[in-house]
Amino acid sequence: MLLRSVRLLLSHHHLHLHPAGRTAQWSSGRRLRSMEPSNATSEVPATETPAEPARSPAAGEQTPPVGLLPGETVVKEGKAAILFPSANEVFYNPVQEFNRDLTCAVLTEYAREVLAQRGVKLVVPGENEREEADVPTEEEENGAETPTATVGEKCERGLRVLEGLSASGLRSVRFALEVPGLQSVTANDFSTKAAALIGRNAEYNGVGHLLSASCRDASMLMYEMRGKKQRYDVIDLDPYGSPASFLDAAVQAVGEGGLLCITCTDMAVMAGNSGETCYSKYGSVSIKAKYCHEMALRIILHGLDQRAGVYQRYIQPLLSVSVDFYIRVFVRVFTGQATVKNSASKQALVYNCVGCGSFHLQRMGRRTINGKHVKYSPATGPPVGPECEHCGQRHQLGGPIWAEPIHDLPFVQKVLSAVSGNPSRFGTSKRIEGVLSMVTEELEDVPLYYAVDSLSSTIHCNTPPLLQFRSALLHAGHRVSLSHACKNAIKTDAPPSVLWDIMRCWEKTNPVKREKLSETSPAFKILSEEPGSEACFTVREDANPQSRKRHLTRFQENPQAFWGPKARARSCGGIATDLQDKRKKFQNKRKNQSADPELKNIHCKRFKLGTCTHGDQCCYSHDLPPATSELLT
Fold first, then answer.
1. Cα(175)–Cα(187) distance, rounded to whole angstroms?
2. What is the pTM of this model?
3. Rounded CA gap, 237 and 189, in Å?
C-alpha cells in the first residue's frame, strides 16, 4: 500500500503540478515550518526499483533528461544531479556549495573515527591508503579481514543521518553518493511537494537503497526519536534564518557522541542589530562590535550547551566557521552529569567599551581543582570599573557566550589533511584548505579579536601594516594570530593596555593633528598619555603565518551578483518574480540618482515658490536653469 501511495503521489505531480506557466508551484519546505499539512503517510520511500545512477558525468557529457517534468532543469553539484523546478530559485543557492563540501569532508572524517571503533574501514575514492594508529579490531585479532565501507553502499554498522530541513534533498543525495560508511539517510521536509521532489531526486541518482524521504515536522520527528536506540548519529539542520526552534529537539535526538551540524543565517540578529531578539532565541545578548562574527559563533555554541545541559548532556565543538553570510558549527554531544557542572565556568559575559572598543570577559562561574576534588563557586567581578580606563567611556554588556575553544584542532587537522591530499574530491577544495589552515593557526584559548583598522580609526591615525603590528606584539612577548572570521583581525593574549601602547608608539611616527581632537573624544584621552613601553616594529619571520605565505584562498571575493541568502519561500511556491528587479531598482539609489519618477517625487524649490513651469509633473530631479538655480541658492 505504501509503494502504491507513492506511485499515486508521483502521478498526481505529473498530472496536476506542472501545467504551462505554473512551474513555480514547488515550495521550499526547507525554508518553512508551517506551509501545508502533511499527509497521513510520514515516510515517502524513494523508489521501488532504482533508476540508472546519475553519477559525475564526464566533461561535455550531459545527463539524459529521463523522467523530467515540464519546466524542470538538472543542476549538478559534486556527484549529484538534482532535479529543480526552473522557476523556483529558493531550492538552490550555488554559493552554499562550500557549506555542503565542508559538511561532506567533516562527516567523512567523523565517520572514519566512529566506524574505526566499530571495526569498519572507510574507503574514499581518490584517497591514498592512510595509516591509522588504532587498536586492532576483533576481526584483525582473529585473523579475519576487516570489513570496508565504500560510497554509495549501505553499511550495516554505519551512521544514521537525518537532514531535518532538506528542501530538494541535494545535501542528502550528496551524503549518499560521496560519504562512505552510512547505514541510512533520512531527508525530511514539512512540504509534501518538497518530499515528493526528494523521492524523485533519490530515484534519479540511484540512491534509493540509502536515502528515504520523510514528510514531517522536523521538531516532532526528532522528539519521537529521543530513545537511546532510536537516536541518529548525525543531525544536519540548515534552516532559513534561525535554527533556535529546532535546537531543543536536536540535542535530544542525537546519539551519544553524535554529530550536530547547525547553520545560522540570521546574522543581523546575531551580529548586534537586535540584541533583545538574540536573547529571546539563544539566551545571549549580541552587541555591535568588530568581533561580532566570532561572537555569533560563540552565541550559538552557548545556546546549544544551555539546551543540552537541561538533559544532562554537554557539547564538544569540532569546527566553527563564519563564512559568507552565515555561520556553521559542528559539535559532538555527550551525556555526563558530572561534566555538565562545568558548563557555568565555560560561559562568559563581555564588557565592551563603546569608545575605544576594548573588551573584557567575565566568566559566569569558577571551578577550582584540588587533586581529585572539584569545587564550584560563583565568579567574582566585574573586571572593569564604571568607566573605561583607556578612554573614559562607558561599557556595554553582552553575552553570555561560549568562552572555551570553538575548534578541536586535531580533528580539524585530519579534515585538512584529507582535503589537501585529495583536492579533486570537492569543487571548493582550495577554499576549504585556506579556511581550515587559518583555523589551525588561531589561538584556541583566546576568545574574540581586535581589528587593526578599528584601532587606528579610534585615534584617527594611519593604519600600521599587519606584519609590523603583529611583530610589535611578538617583540613584547605576547602570542598573536589571525582569525578566519575577519581579514584584519588580531587575536592575542596581550591586554588592551599593551595594544594602546603600541598604537601610541605608532602615532609618534605617524602623528595626528592634536588640535583637531575633541577633549572628550577617546582619541584625545588615549593619546594624552605616554606609552608605558616602547614598541618595536621590526618585522619578524614568524609574524607572517604559513597560510598567508602560501597565498591560500582565505577570504574570497563575492562570487556573483546577488549571492546572499535568497528570499523566503512562499506557500504557493517560488519567490516573487520581480524581487531581483526591485533590488536593482533600489540599490545605490542615493549614490546614483535615477530619473525614475517613482523614486523622485519630491517637488523642487521653484514649485514651492509657485514659479515651476512643470506644474504637477514637477519632481526634484529635473534640471533648473542656471540663473534661477543661482537665485534659489
1. 11
2. 0.80
3. 11
For the chain, give the longest Cα–Cα distance. 102
Q: Does 31 score more than 50 pLDDT?
A: no
Cα separation, 205 vs 50, whole angstroms: 8
Give me the chain's average pLDDT, please: 82
Distances (CA, A) of 273 to 242, 287, 359: 15, 7, 19
| Residue whose cell numbers read 559525475 | 56
DSSP string covering 495-548, please?
Answer: -HHHHHHHHHHHHHHS---GGGS-TTSHHHHHHTSPPSS----PPPGGGS-HHH
Average pLDDT score over residue span 464-483: 95
Are residues 308 and 262 in contact, defined by beta-carbon separation less than 8 angstroms?
A: no
Q: Is 86 helix (H, G, I), strand (E, B) or coil?
A: coil
In order, the DSSP letters of 307-370 are HHHHTTEEEEEEEEEEETTEEEEEEEEEE-HHHHTTHHHHEEEEEEETTT--EEEEESEEEEEE
Q: What is the residue-wise DSSP string for 8-54?
A: HHHHHHHHHS--TT-GGG---TTT-SSSSPPPS--EE-S-SS-----
Give the number of residues written for the chain.
Answer: 633
CA–CA separation, 433 and 562 (whole Å): 25
Grid cell of 628 as nine digits: 534661477
pLDDT tens-digit profile of 536-564? 999 999 999 999 998 888 776 666 666 66
d(Cα 44, Cα 196) in Å, to the nearest integer? 7
Integer Cα distance of 520 and 518 in angstroms: 5
Q: At what angle do helices 192-205 and 2-16 cross, to 10 degrees?
A: 100
Give the start-end residues of each E strand in 195-280: 211-214, 232-237, 254-264
Q: Where are the alpha helices (DSSP H) in 52-164?
A: 97-117, 138-141
Residue 55 has a pLDDT of 44
Cα–Cα dist 104/99, whole Å: 9
